Hints:
Blueprint: H1 2-40
Amino acid sequence: xxxxxxxxxxxxxxxxxxxxxxxxxxxxxxxxxxxxxxxxxxxxxxxxxxxxxxxx
Length: 56
């Protein structure tokens, strides 16, 4: 019974890691698209310099 529970626990762990990794890839893709859109749609700056769409 214990080996069966260990195998089931391992399957659940690997499924959870795979699902989390897939979710993280989608989040990274969304962040990349937002970052690229920020470069495309930034407005001009007074003084002729290049602007940043984020504030750091």
